[in-house]
């Protein structure tokens, strides 16, 4: 899965010189979105539904291709579970905060008032896991917490559409599959988002 996602994403980036043979429009856009995420694979065993948002700035290098820089934030609440340690039952709860800093290439598949698009997104994903542990000892509760942060490469192929709301305003609806490649596993989720995109000129 890791190899397939990486190859597909890089292939779309490599196809840009062919897809963008028209003279670039120089149109700049900015946008923001709110989103929700459903964990998949190994990630869903320790986390629940996530929510977040983000923003982007992009430049149309042709009528069909937009190059973008993106920043976003996702928070996934954790599941509570019990583990046994030295004969003691520990109550553990974790949560995840993820900040992607990525580049993306968006390709429109049609022209008109509504634009369906595909996008390849890849970059740095900064992930922080927070863990709270508690147990009862002689009628009192003892608790502790800790966190760990790491930065890994990830990809996020996207399918979406823009719907014209005004001369310089579009509604952006999209879904994407995000995969962060960590040692021994892949942190992944399916994302759904709705936002607004503004043309700057």
Account of the 3D structure:
With 201 residues, this protein is mainly beta. It has a single domain (2-199), classed as Porin (Beta Barrel), CATH 2.40.160. The protein is 8% helix and 73% strand. It contains 2 helices and 10 strands. Strands 1, 2, 3, 4, 5, 6, 7, 8, 9 and 10 form a 10-stranded antiparallel sheet that branches. A hairpin with a 2-residue loop joins strand 6 (114-137) and strand 7 (140-155). The chain is elongated and about 70 Å long. The termini are far apart. The model is unreliable at 1-24 (pLDDT under 50).
Order of helices and strands: HHEEEEEEEEEE
**Total count of strands:** 10
Q: State the helicity in percent bands.
A: under 10%
* Euclidean distance between termini CA atoms: 41 Å
Write a concise synopsis of the structure shown.
This protein has 201 residues and is mainly β.
Offer a few descriptive terms.
single chain; 201 residues; mainly beta; Porin; 2 helices; disordered N terminus
Write the layout of secondary structure elements.
Layout: H1 2-14, H2 16-19, E1 27-40, E2 47-60, E3 65-78, E4 80-85, E5 88-108, E6 114-137, E7 140-155, E8 158-166, E9 169-182, E10 185-199
Antiparallel strand pairs: 1-2, 1-10, 2-3, 3-5, 4-5, 5-6, 6-7, 6-8, 7-9, 8-9, 9-10
């Amino acid at each position: 899965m890791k190899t397939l996602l990486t190859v597909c994403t890089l292939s779309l980036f490599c196809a840009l010189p062919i897809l963008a043979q028209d003279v670039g429009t120089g149109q700049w856009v900015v946008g923001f979105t709110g989103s929700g995420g459903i964990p998949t694979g190994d990630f869903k065993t320790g986390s629940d539904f996530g929510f977040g948002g983000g923003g982007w700035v992009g430049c149309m290098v042709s009528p069909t291709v937009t190059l973008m820089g993106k920043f976003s934030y996702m928070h996934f609440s954790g599941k509570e579970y019990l583990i046994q340690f030295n004969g003691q039952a520990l109550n553990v709860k974790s949560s995840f905060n993820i900040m992607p800093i990525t580049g993306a290439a968006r390709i429109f598949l049609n022209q008109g008032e509504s634009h369906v698009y595909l996008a390849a997104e890849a970059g740095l994903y900064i992930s922080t896991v927070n863990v709270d542990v508690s147990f009862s000892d002689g009628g009192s509760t003892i608790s502790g917490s800790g966190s760990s942060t790491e930065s890994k490469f990830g990809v996020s192929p996207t399918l979406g559409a823009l719907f014209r709301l005004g001369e310089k305003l579009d509604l952006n609806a999209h879904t994407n599959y995000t995969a962060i490649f960590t040692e021994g596993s892949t942190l992944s989720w399916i994302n759904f988002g709705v936002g607004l995109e503004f043309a700057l000129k």
